Structure formats: C-alpha cells, structure tokens
Amino acid sequence: MPVRAQGGGEKRLLEDGNVLMLSAPSYCAPVAAALPSAAWHAGAVAGSVVGAAVATLGWGTFAVGSGLFIPVTQRVKISHAVALSFDDGPSEEFTPRLLDLLGEHQAQASFFLIGRYVAKSAKLVRRMVDEGHTVGNHTWDHHRDGLLGGRDYWDQQIRLGEQAIGDAIGRCPRLFRPPLGFKTATQAGVLRHRGYEVIGWRLRAFDTLPLSAAAIAQRVVTHVRPGDIVTLHDGLEPQRWNKSQAHTCQAMADILTDLRQRGLRCVSLETGLQRSSYRD
Ligand SMILES: [Zn+2]
C-alpha cells in the first residue's frame, strides 16, 4: 500500500523489506526542471559563435599586424637595419627639422603623408625624395570616422592622397599606412584594387601622447630590434588635441645616435623591402 513519503513523494514497502519509490518527493522535482533545454544550448552556441566573430573582427581591425583583411608588412628584409617611419606630415614646422637631423646622421626614413598637407607643402615632399627617403600614402585627410566609411569614401581618400603625392613628385606611391593602423574589409578591397602594400610597424613610439622627448627615446632604444619598422610622427593629424611634435624631433637626436652606436643602419622602405615603393 502506497504511503506518503517525506517531501510529498510516494513509496511502497515491499515484502522483502525494501522500499520502492513511486514518485519523487517535491524537493527533487526542480532538478529536472533546471536542466538546460535544447533552446538554451542553441542560444549558448550562437552566443559563442557571435562572440568569436566579434573578437576576430576586432583583432582584424585594430591589431596593427593582423592580416585578416589584407597582408601587413611590419619588418624589413635587412637584418642589420631599422626602418624609421613618420606619419601625419608633412609639417612646415617639424618636418624640416627632422630632415636636417636625418641628414646629419646619414639616415634614411619613410614618410606616410596626409594628402591635404602634401598639396600645401609639395616642396617639402620633393625634398624628402631628393634626400633618399620614401614617401607613402596616409589618406587625403586622415579622418577618424573613416573606419565606418564605405567603398566610395575609401576610394576617394586613397585616390586623392595618391594624386597629391603624384602631383608633388611625379610618381605614384604603392605603400599605404592606414590611419591609426586600423583596417577594414572595405578599405582593404580598395587597396587591393589600386595595387597597394599595407605597411604597419613592429614598434610604435607613442609620440602622439604627451610624453617627454626622453621617454620617447627611451621607449624606442629599449625595444627596437634589427629589422623593425618603427613608427613616429612628424606631423599632426587634423583631429589632434595636442599640437606639437617638437618632442619627437628632440627624441630623434638620441635615437639616431643610439642606433648608429649599435651598428643599426636607418634605411628607407624602398631599400629595406628591396622592392619599389612606387607604381611606375
Ligand atoms: Zn596617422
């Protein structure tokens, strides 16, 4: 005869003295109800897939060396050399000082130029090339919202940047550095179509931050390795809040001295990559 068990379940006392449980007590019931359903599993799997896709896209966009959308060059092919590169110029205030300094140290470098500045300082760009430096495209106006730009936006930014350089030096650049090192699938499609090679960096000086010249020099000389492409800034992107690169010019004197003492040659990307930086 069934008897009520503690907790609301039913049990029967068998002849051999054992107890047969007829229904589970109420305090056991939630266990089955708490087990994940198929829908919960599907949701968890979908969440993981979306999370992984977002993480991959974030890495592809923001990590300077990611080749998710397009291959990125971060080193040169000469082992006893370093490729210094300067972004966001030309600047009538800072670039001539930097060129003087590079000349004093017999150092070559590369400059990734903002097209709208090139249009105003063509003479300075010709001086870069005449003194053995490489110049590359860094968009027309380096707008930070460009990350969200579509095909027309990127086509215009890249085409106008290259046209400004072409007007200044009579050659068409084939090296491109994305603003802030950020890449998108749309931007990459335009770059491939126009035959560009994307240049990243292995070491960034963080000289757009309010660091002292000593701190910038210290960072570069401590971390630089043979073959590295190093990124600094001679110019000021239009959206910059601090308006000086004087500390970069000051730091360069120490950086160039240190590299020379270590036997590391400063080469342009044209020399370091052992292929033409121009499309002609
Ligand atoms: Zn830039």
Can I get a quick summary?
With 280 residues, this protein is an alpha/beta fold.
CATH level 1 class label: Alpha Beta
Order of helices and strands: EEEHHEEHEHHEHEHEEHEHEH
> Remind me, CATH topology?
TIM Barrel
Give a quick account of the main beta sheet: strands, pairing sense, barrel closure. Answer: 6 strands, parallel
Q: What's the structural domain tally?
A: 1
The distinct bound ligands, ions and cofactors come out as:
zinc ion
Query: What proportion strand?
Result: 15-25%
CA-based gyration radius: 30 Å
Poorly predicted segments? 24-33
CATH homologous superfamily heading = Glycoside hydrolase/deacetylase
* CATH level-two architecture: Alpha-Beta Barrel
Percent helix, as a range, is: 40-55%
What is the first-to-last residue Cα distance? Answer: 99 Å
Overall average residue pLDDT: 88
Could you say which overall geometry the principal axes of the C-alpha atoms support? globular
- Quantity of strands, as a count: 12
* Number of helical segments with 4 or more residues: 10
Structural class: alpha/beta
